[in-house]
């Protein structure tokens, strides 16, 4: 696509970030490299959106701490930011609504003159399929970056978990926005897409990024190590390790307080 303008992309990652790990940050770098390598896209921003306290997942520490740790983790990045909107909502917000919110924010940044008045309540052709979002007030804004949801393969595979995601939300995410999915050990996103009619239909909007440096870094592992007073250094950015030791552990959450070696 030399000489032609690339499509601007904003990557949005939703999750607990309990706490944010180096792998969360690496996920953004991998996704940006992958998309830009195609020659079609220019990734202009990455957004981390920690889930709110209403998610009520076992062991989830307060959103203010997860938010602060994500802020510390990204303070040296010139393109990844943390957004607090989702984490400040009193009730849990479905991911599709979070994606819509961020799309509206991006669209609002555009000049009103750029509004393409074709509403998504009208039939539109996407990937040669007629697609329609009944009742959605979304408008396609010319010049607005494309917003893609960034996730690990476990989240993609959770689409198949009965009664977890609404089918219409999955449709909207993969047809209108697009998905960038980073492989995790034990996952097979290509096979998962092949076995899902919806995902297969919109497979061109799903970008699979292969993590060749296979690793098992997960927030679960970090929490387990903390419970056992083991070091989590180099699994998390140093600033986050310090925050864990100095702030979170003194706030009465489940994490233990006797981990002074984190400060070294
Ligand atoms: N090692 C990893 N490889 C690829 N994606 C990852 C990895 N760790 C986290 N992610 C992705 O980051 C996003 C946010 O994840 P989340 O906060 O749930 O992290 P997690 O490490 O999977 O947490 P937990 O272990 O608590 O379930 C999700 O899309 C998840 O798939
Ligand atoms: O929107 C949904 O229906 C939906 C169903 C299940 C999970 N999610 C989101 O997926 C993310 C999962 O995070 P975690 O830590 O539970 O792996 C989190 O951001 C949730 O809000 C979203």
Automatic annotation (TrEMBL):
Its cofactor is Zn(2+); Mg(2+). It catalyses: nicotinate beta-D-ribonucleotide + ATP + H(+) = deamido-NAD(+) + diphosphate; beta-nicotinamide D-ribonucleotide + ATP + H(+) = diphosphate + NAD(+). CDD domains: NMNAT_Eukarya. GO terms for cellular component: nucleus. One of its GO terms (molecular function) is ATP binding. Its EC number is 2.7.7.1, 2.7.7.18. Pathway: Cofactor biosynthesis; NAD(+) biosynthesis; NAD(+) from nicotinamide D-ribonucleotide: step 1/1; Cofactor biosynthesis; NAD(+) biosynthesis; deamido-NAD(+) from nicotinate D-ribonucleotide: step 1/1. It is an enzyme of class 2 (transferase). The keyword Nucleotide-binding applies. Keywords: ATP-binding, Magnesium, NAD, Nucleotide-binding, Nucleotidyltransferase, Nucleus, Phosphoprotein, Pyridine nucleotide biosynthesis, Transferase, Zinc. It is found in: Nucleus. One of its GO terms (biological process) is NAD+ biosynthetic process. It holds the Pfam family CTP_transf_like. Residues 12-224 form the Cytidyltransferase-like domain. Belongs to the eukaryotic NMN adenylyltransferase family. Homohexamer. Interacts with ADPRT/PARP1. This is Nicotinamide-nucleotide adenylyltransferase. It comes from Monopterus albus (Swamp eel).
